[in-house]
């Protein structure tokens, strides 16, 4: 029962704040609502039993990415200036697109997904298991993506510095 | 309401998680299409990526318990999203330095 209540609270928080994040007038408030959405997502990971993903979500998303966002907002925002909206017709078209997509996918999920769902208990993931899976080259082990990510991070650091430096 | 009954009796059904990520994803779609500021567009992209992450993890937990494919996919997606945000924000700051504005309507001149 406690799990259901926690899930319900997290779901309401995520739904309300994700809608508020895209409709808010001030961009710094949008970033704050995005932070709440990311923290709620971390809570969902914890509820599903993936503690490591919870820690990564908090550290990388709620920590690093949010700091980047707030940094960029403070660098590019003129104080006291509201965001300009798109044309009204484009906003209505965007809302219509989102609602149609929501109805379509919601219909599919509601009528088709429940046939395959059942939550089977699984043993806790140990750090040893995670490390072996990340550092092996066998089937279902992920050394190659891990190394690719490291090269991507290096390229990203170099690229970001090259783009943002003063000439 | 079937879903509400399912939520408060027994275990949490998979479609409850999928519904949460669905709302998050289409909030992101709406923000992406209806905002002018590039930072708002980036925030919307983060929402969509996050919804996809939730889906990976939920499908892994419910449909393939004991396996780790969705888990690692979500992990690597988080890393790629962090990279993408860093590069995008560098580009946005550079654009702001050149054009004094971060609105997409002003972006018809990338290089003069």
Structure description:
The complex is a heterodimer of chains A (167) and B (112). With 167 residues, chain A is mainly α. Chain A has helices spanning 2-23, 27-48, 51-76, 88-112, 127-134, 143-164. With 112 residues, chain B is mainly α. In chain B, 76% of the residues lie in helices and 0% in strands. Chain B is elongated, with a radius of gyration of 19 Å. The chains are: A mainly alpha (167), B mainly alpha (112). The interface between A and B is large, with 87 and 72 residues.
Sheet/helix structural class of chain B: mainly alpha
Helix/strand/pairing category of chain A: mainly alpha
Distinct helical segment count of chain A:
6
In the CATH hierarchy, what is the architecture of chain B at level 2?
Orthogonal Bundle
Q: Please give the largest β-sheet of chain B.
A: none
Order of helices and strands of chain A: HHHHHH
Give the DSSP E fraction of chain B (strand runs of 2 or more residues).
under 5%
Main beta sheet of chain A, described? none
Layout of helices and strands:
The complex is a heterodimer of chains A (167) and B (112).
Chain A: H1 2-23, H2 27-48, H3 51-76, H4 88-112, H5 127-134, H6 143-164
Chain B: H1 2-8, H2 14-34, H3 38-63, H4 69-99
Helix pairs in contact in B: 2-3, 3-4
């Amino acid at each position: 029962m406690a799990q259901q209540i926690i899930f319900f609270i997290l779901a309401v928080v995520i739904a309300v704040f994700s809608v508020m994040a895209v409709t808010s007038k001030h961009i710094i408030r949008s970033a704050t609502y995005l932070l709440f959405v990311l923290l709620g997502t971390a809570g969902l990971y914890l509820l599903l039993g993936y503690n490591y993903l919870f820690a990564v979500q908090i550290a990388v998303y709620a920590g690093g990415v949010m700091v980047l966002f707030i940094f960029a907002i403070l660098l590019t925002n003129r104080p006291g200036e509201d965001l300009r909206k798109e044309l009204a017709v484009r906003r209505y078209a965007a809302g219509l697109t989102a609602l149609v997509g929501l109805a379509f996918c919601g219909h599919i999920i509601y009528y088709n997904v429940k046939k395959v769902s059942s939550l089977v208990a699984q043993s806790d993931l140990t750090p040893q298991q995670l490390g072996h899976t990340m550092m092996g080259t066998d089937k279902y082990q992920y050394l190659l993506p891990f190394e690719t990510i490291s090269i991507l991070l290096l390229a990203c650091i170099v690229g970001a510095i090259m783009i943002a430096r003063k000439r | 309401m079937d879903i509400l009954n399912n939520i408060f009796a027994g275990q949490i059904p998979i479609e409850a998680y999928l519904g949460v990520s669905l709302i998050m994803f289409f909030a992101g779609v709406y923000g992406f299409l209806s905002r002018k500021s590039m930072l708002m567009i980036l925030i919307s992209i983060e929402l969509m990526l996050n919804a996809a992450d939730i889906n990976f993890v939920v499908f892994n937990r419910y449909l393939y318990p004991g396996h780790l494919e969705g888990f690692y996919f979500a992990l690597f997606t988080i890393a790629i999203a962090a990279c993408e945000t860093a590069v995008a924000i560098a580009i946005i700051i550079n654009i702001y330095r050149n054009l004094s504005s971060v609105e997409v309507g002003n972006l018809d001149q990338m290089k003069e």
